[in-house]
Amino acid sequence: MSHELTDAQQRLVDEVRDFADTVVAPAAYEYDTKRELPYEILAQMGEMGLFGLPFPREYGGQGRDYLDLCLAVEQLARVDQSIAVTLEAGVGLGAMPVWRSGTDAQKKEWIPMLARGEALAAFGLTEADAGSDAAGTRTTAVLDGGDWVIDGSKQFITNSGTRITRLVTVTAVTGESMRPDGSVRKELTAFLVPAGTPGLHVGPAYDKVGWHTSDTHPLVLDHVRVPEENLLGERGRGFASFIQTLDEGRVAFAALCTGAAQGCLEEAIRYAGTRRVFGRTIGENQHTQFTIARMQARAHAARLAYLDAAHRIVAGRPFKLEASLAKLIGSEAAMANARDASQIFGGYGFLNENPVARHYRDSKVLEVGEGTTEVQLMVIARELGLAGRP
């Protein structure tokens, strides 16, 4: 399979790269320090069509595909992971469940505003005792007349508290049944909960180690009533639908990881070529050369991994294994490159105004978000036929 970009894809990469370098990068430190989401930058991204890349034109999108979204996310992540994850989560986790599982009426109502970047949607799966473990879900939904009544809480929800957040998709337990072995099987169903619905409370923003510009909040659903038609997909298929979303999301997340690894590489190359010690640049030292060479190898491998998975999505081929491989390889590449770049910069790499310092803080969550490293290893092992073996 060739991973060479088409002319249209290369133009997209060039356009987003230029936008990242000239608009996003200069503002990154300021907004990171203020811990604010730059709405004017999001508005420009909306005008560029980035939030609508994988959606048809008749729904306000760009008529492109998931690979194009990944390419855009990578370029943004080079300079600011928070901005990149706002796009990745807004499209891959927020809008995509509506697109994949929604009715025609739901798509017509929500996709156009999400595709134009006028609104953001959040993905409400994770709870204190649930996420990777679906059986731990405690949020419930009970049908009462023509409404579903939802009670529970969610945590670590990206894009859930912005001033343009308009929708949260949530999973809830809608029933239970007994398995033959005596264990309880929970029936999980997904729902659309518009922002501002009575009983939907957005908690204070988390005080995070990194991703300071990204919006992340806990949610409480206290007797939230939504119409019966707000059911998303089939009853009892909520977790399966969200797992499909996560599988796709991991590919875009891997693209974000790749961008972070690439950003650290580019900063290290630049600094190594200008920083002089003992009469020569540090880039003339073999140890620095070898370190940067390994950084290049990691970024290259991460890019090939996510491109392979993204091509499979576009072609309609199975991609679960490749998605987990891409996420594993990419997150480890980002973390390792951030560490090495910070070391090359020395004391300057410890200053928050330096991009590599922000990458060092930001990159740790890449090994946790959208499925931890351990979850990816489990998925990979199972896809290799090793499930259940001692």
Automatic annotation (TrEMBL):
SUPFAM superfamilies: Acyl-CoA dehydrogenase C-terminal domain-like, Acyl-CoA dehydrogenase NM domain-like. This is Acyl-CoA dehydrogenase. It comes from Cellulomonas cellasea DSM 20118. Belongs to the acyl-CoA dehydrogenase family. Its cofactor is FAD. Keywords: FAD, Flavoprotein, Oxidoreductase. The lineage of its organism: Bacteria, Bacillati, Actinomycetota, Actinomycetes, Micrococcales. The keyword DNA-binding does not apply. Residues 236-384 form the Acyl-CoA dehydrogenase/oxidase C-terminal domain. Pfam families: Acyl-CoA_dh_1, Acyl-CoA_dh_M, Acyl-CoA_dh_N. Residues 122-224 form the Acyl-CoA oxidase/dehydrogenase middle domain. GO terms for molecular function: acyl-CoA dehydrogenase activity; flavin adenine dinucleotide binding. Residues 6-118 form the Acyl-CoA dehydrogenase/oxidase N-terminal domain.
